[in-house]
Amino acid sequence: GSSLEPEDRSMEPPAVPEEEAALTVAPSPVGCQLFGYVGIEAVLDQMKIKTMKTGFEFNIMVVGQSGLGKSTMVNTLFKSKVSRKSSQPGQEERIPKTVQLQSITHVIEEKGVKMKLTVTDTPGFGDQINNENCWDPIIKYINEQYERYLREEILITRKRKIPDTRVHGCVYFVPPTGHWLRPLDLEFMRRLSKIVNVVPVIAKADTLTLEERAEFKQRIQEDLKTHAISVYPQEDFDQDPEDRALNDRIREKIPFAVVGADQEHQVNGKRVLGRKTKWGIIEVENPAHCEFPLLRDLLIRSHLQDLKDITHNVHYESYRVRRLNESNRP
Q1: Is residue 113 part of a domain?
Q2: Measured between alpha carbons, how far is 271 from 136 in angstroms, rounded to an integer?
Q3: Phi, psi of 280 (to 5 degrees)
Q4: φ, ψ for residue 90 (rounded to 5)?
Q5: Which SUPFAM superfamilies does the UniProt record give (predicted)?
Q6: Residue at 150 is within a domain
Q7: 3-state secondary structure of 208
Q8: Which is nearest to 260 in space by CA: 71, 130, 10?
């Protein structure tokens, strides 16, 4: 029953449509098994050594009314006298008639890692009877730093490392009223959250009881949600499930109820940073007393690089696109 006709045994594959062939050619991203140690992980050590040699920059802005402890909080964050008032102790503090931005830069070092820290204070914000448009100088300053970086970036012969003066994080101090957010607070965060990473905190939280603190925090969260204000860390920029889970826990705690202190006291044989009152000592680094450790972890220990990345990839990028579109218009 077999056929006596010769079989077609040519090695040419059957004709495949172009679309199907294109699909079969693309290689799948499969990991390759190594036969021995190559040393790819040494890239991390190279990056660490290079960063320790060159250092890095971090620029932070503090905004709030006078008397809310902004300078003390910055000194507590970095455990050094880096605030504007600490650097000019002899000058008399007067409330300016308009918002004046004052920046001071320090180089701080820890375990061989150098950081060029720039702290920008905003004296005069919210201290006047008429606070209309008091956020304009702050917006202007932030955009000027973006403009300065953009001008350096579009030069034909540009520097290998462009000086970065862009504001990476803005800590906004909410007065501990225990009620709702003021229209000034809402309008500031609504405008500034579009161009910079805003982290709201409840200043001098030791003036509130634990029940008042929890209720005030819940009201602030409701206000932010009602007015569609997206503070840092923003939900839209979570890259993977692990980041989303971590940031969800942080968003539940925002705004942080913080207490600042730059004086040490003796507690159970240990020297701790705290505020001494008639009834005891409020330890600023004790999570049972306040949420300052959460703020420090967010700004420095866990999200410092993320603050810089979002500033560069989101806020600065939107400013750059807008400016280049304006320049290309006839």
Answers
A1: yes
A2: 43
A3: 155, -170
A4: -85, -15
A5: P-loop containing nucleoside triphosphate hydrolases (SSF52540)
A6: yes
A7: coil
A8: 71
User: pLDDT per position in the chain (330 positions), as tens?
Assistant: 444 444 455 445 555 555 444 444 455 556 677 788 888 889 988 888 888 888 889 999 999 998 898 988 998 888 888 877 766 665 656 667 678 888 999 988 888 888 899 999 998 898 888 888 889 999 999 999 999 999 999 998 988 889 999 999 999 999 998 788 999 999 999 999 999 999 999 999 988 898 999 999 999 999 999 999 999 999 888 888 888 999 999 999 999 999 988 888 888 888 888 888 888 888 888 888 899 999 999 999 989 999 999 999 999 999 999 999 988 876
* Count of residues in the chain: 330
Cβ pair 77, 299 in contact under 8 A: yes
Using CA of residue 188, residue 189, residue 195, residue 198, what is the dihedral sign?
positive
In a domain, 23, yes or no: no
Domain of 265, in residue numbers = 43-84+94-328
DSSP states along 234-290: PGGG--SHHHHHHHHHHHHHPSEE------EEEETTEEEEEEE-SS-EEETT-TTT-
What gap in Å lies between CA 93 and CA 40, rounded to an integer?
55
CATH number, domain of 65, equals 3.40.50.300
Q: Which residues contact 175 (CB under 8 A, 6 or more apart)?
A: 64, 65, 68, 182, 203
